[in-house]
TrEMBL record:
Annotated GO MF terms: glycosyltransferase activity
Domain Glycosyl transferase family: 191-340
A family per Pfam: Glycos_transf_1
Entry-linked SUPFAM superfamilies: UDP-Glycosyltransferase/glycogen phosphorylase (SSF53756)
Residue span(s) of domain Glycosyltransferase subfamily 4-like N-terminal: 17-181
CDD domains, per the entry: GT4_WbuB-like
The protein's name: Glycosyltransferase
Organism domain of life: Bacteria
Residues in the signal sequence: none
UniProt entry keywords in alphabetical sequence: Glycosyltransferase, Transferase
Length: 373
């Protein structure tokens, strides 16, 4: 089949999109991507995304907007993005058979187009919209109504954990698949040549509020026995560049391709996947870092009442904290004290990844969706 993915970020990188696209190419499908570049202003730029099983055309729309700005701040840019997506999909309707829409902010317009031009629609819910983003109260009921209507009309719906079925309660998808956001296994991960006598904390991802990045920086600044290796993109980039120049045990890498992210995480000691439990969606979250930690066998720090924290606590795969800096500091000390246990825990984590969450299994589920539609 010919598939067009639609995503409201630049896919530069986007690990879940890249994994799914790569798996579909491997299965013989032709794939292109529509994406939103919020950092520049231009009509459209075409380039290629180089993946393991082939190169994919990616068409980016340059519409300046902020990350994490919510619907109110980004209403006009989001509206412009919808119009450009609509126009491209209508103009190029003979280039695709399936629209693979990622989240409600692309599914709304994709649903309209798919029904207009008689194309299949796969609705991939990375994050349930009203629980994840700053949506004005007046709009919430309307968005939930529209979201549920799309779920019911789509040819297939994808969610990223079994727990997320609670979020879409009351809907009746034609086909529903759970595809965990787990990384593809790396058989021979390259190890970076880092200092071995220092405990290395690592985070690579969106650099913004609510992920405890500043809190980790404050702890590491006053504790030379730690290093903080941090990469990604977002509103904290300038802040991290400055603090990394001031403190030698804070190392900022900027934006990293996914294989480099895994190399860095594999070379460090402790991973963090800390999200604000007051955000409803975080209770249902399936953080990339959780799955990456399992695959790499690295102890994780997570906040209580956020997705997958019970697995960490039950199995002793790291520490679960209250959502404050003091609790984080205590958790780091506890993990260092338990260093002798890391080897055994690492083996158990890798086994759990292999038995329950491997991308090989997720790939089969994805390919079956396309086979069935």
């Amino acid at each position: 089949m010919r598939v067009i993915f639609v995503r409201s970020n630049p896919v530069d990188p986007d690990s879940r999109v890249e994994k799914e696209v790569n798996s579909l190419i491997k299965a013989g499908h032709d794939v292109e991507i529509l994406a939103w570049d919020r950092s520049s202003k231009y009509i459209i730029k075409d380039s290629q995304l180089n993946l393991e099983f082939g190169n994919v055309k990616i068409h980016r729309f340059g519409i300046p907007a902020s990350y994490g700005g919510g619907v109110q701040k980004n209403f006009w840019p989001l509206f412009q993005f919808q119009i450009r997506v609509f126009n491209w999909l209508i103009k190029n309707k003979h280039r695709y058979d399936v629209i693979h829409a990622c989240d409600f902010d692309t599914a709304f317009i994709s649903n309209i187009v798919s029904r207009t031009v008689k194309k299949k629609l796969v609705y991939d819910i990375f994050d349930y919209y009203v629980d994840s983003f700053n949506v004005p109260q007046k709009l919430k009921k309307y968005i939930v109504y529209q979201d549920h209507a799309i779920i019911n009309k789509a040819d297939a719906v994808i969610i990223c954990t079994d727990k997320r079925q609670e979020q879409i309660k009351g809907t009746s998808p034609k086909r529903l698949a759970v595809i965990h956001n787990t990384p593809a296994r790396i058989e021979h991960g390259f190890q970076l040549n880092l200092e071995t006598n220092i405990t290395k904390i690592v985070y690579v991802g969106i650099l913004g509020e609510g992920r405890f990045i500043r809190e980790i920086v404050e702890i590491v600044k006053k504790n030379p026995q730690y290093e903080f290796h941090v990469g990604g993109f977002g509103e904290y980039e300038n802040y991290l560049e400055k603090v990394a120049l001031e403190f030698s045990n804070i190392i900022f890498y900027g934006k990293l391709p996914y294989h480099k992210t895994l190399e860095l995480e594999s070379s460090c000691d402790i991973m963090t996947a800390i999200y604000d439990p007051s955000v409803p969606n975080h209770y249902f979250a399936a953080p990339n870092k959780f799955y990456e930690g399992l695959m790499l066998g690295k102890p994780l720090i997570m906040a209580k009442n956020t997705g997958m924290d019970a697995i960490i606590e039950k199995n002793g795969f790291g520490e679960v904290i209250d959502y404050n800096q003091e609790s984080l500091e205590k958790a780091l000390m506890k993990l260092v004290e338990r260093k002798k246990e890391w080897g055994e825990a690492s083996t158990q984590m890798k086994n759990l990844y292999r038995d329950k969450y491997s991308w090989d299994e997720m790939e089969v589920r994805l390919i079956n969706i396309y086979r069935n539609i």
